[in-house]
Amino acid sequence: MKGTFPLDKFRDLRTPFYYYDVQLLRDTLNAIKVESARCGRCVVHYAVKANANPKVLSIIRESGLGADCVSGGEIQAALKAGFPPEKIVFAGVGKADWEINLALDYDICCFNVESVPELEVINQLAHDKGKKARVAFRINPDVGAHTHANITTGLAENKFGIRMEDMDYVIDLAGSMQNVEFIGLHFHIGSQILDMGDFVALCNRINELQDHLEARLLRIPYINVGGGLGIDYAHPNRQPIPDFKSYFATWHTHLKLRSWQTLHFEPGRAVVGQCGSLISRVLYVKQGANKQFAILDAGMTDLIRPALYQAYHKIENLSSEEPVQAYDVVGPVCESSDVFGKAVDLNTVHRGDLVALRSAGAYGEIMASGYNCRELPQGYTSDEFL
Ligand code: LLP
Fold first, then answer.
1. Are residue 169 and residue 288 in the same domain, yes or no?
2. Which of 45, 55, 228, 275 has the fewest C-beta atoms lying within 10 Å of its C-beta?
3. Is the whole-model pTM more than 0.70?
4. Is the CB of 161 under 6 A from ligand 1?
5. Is 85 inside a domain boundary?
6. Closest residue CA from atom 8 of ligand 1
7. DSSP states of 348-370 as a string?
8. Same structural domain for residues 243 and 336?
9. Alpha-carbon distance 290 to 327, whole Å?
10. 13 CA from centroid of ligand 1 (Å)
């Protein structure tokens, strides 16, 4: 089964471009709303890093989600899309002074702090402005996730977060500072996680840490468990909306949230992944020694995930129903890793056919580059074609 696309509207557009199915995005946001409400005191911040297309961002903002940002640029994009500052959180291992100042000027909800030197700088910059910054500590929980090594973040070896054994010291340090207010803990163990057991392991670790804090008579209002819920790249049509029911139920069942706490989430991929496709045109079909190549006008500059993480994206020939043949689907960029898939079954391909690379709404358009002086791809939403 292929996805449905307004092919007649695509014909005159310059390729490659990203296409976002607004109805699917809205349905996904609605599922998040319904399922997170069952979970109790939950607040969901969309991880802007997954996709900052202005049209996509404003649809997400309309649904009432907050924004999780990792740079000053993302904070600016979120503000421009209308996210209220009190619904913006700011994470990242390397926050520059101007980025911290921007966040202070807007009185954002919380800084997710990743080191002692960063805490000291936030305290100093807040002091210079006569303000008090709310901070949560990103704790590295040393919990692995069953996903690609490049997108695992919660192991002791990763650069992210503060070591668990340093937590008490950092909390005491914050307590001694005039211009920061310690409000809670932040975690994120990785991305594209489909095994709920990984999240259960994080719940168990958080429960231990919470008991420890309680023994110290510390009462914190904010627990943030990051993002990470994966999507079904193999079957975008069969499971267009991720299993938010199991996801939120997992936290509800396993995390011992205190009555005075709110639980914060930061999903990125699960919100936007399935609604986006990269649409490309076939430039050439080329015969190789023992295979044939379908050479697209989209390359790794438009969608880098296959080259960078050996990621799978389902590929469909939208222009043909002719018998299926196997192709190596490649881009035009001068790199041998500019390959979207090997021995991919596609309906017989001809020059000029339109091809969809599915499940590309997250970490697609936003990771595009201008390598080889290529133009950045455009992004269109389905409602532009009505
Ligand atoms: N919160 C924090 C602190 C994060 O580092 C991330 C992702 C998220 C939330 C959102 O995670 P998600 O729900 O999207 O899994 N470019 C890679 C993924 C990098 C994820 C980085 N951090 C890819 O294309 O697979």
1. no
2. 55
3. yes
4. no
5. yes
6. 227
7. ---TT-EEEE-S-TTTTGGG---
8. no
9. 11
10. 31
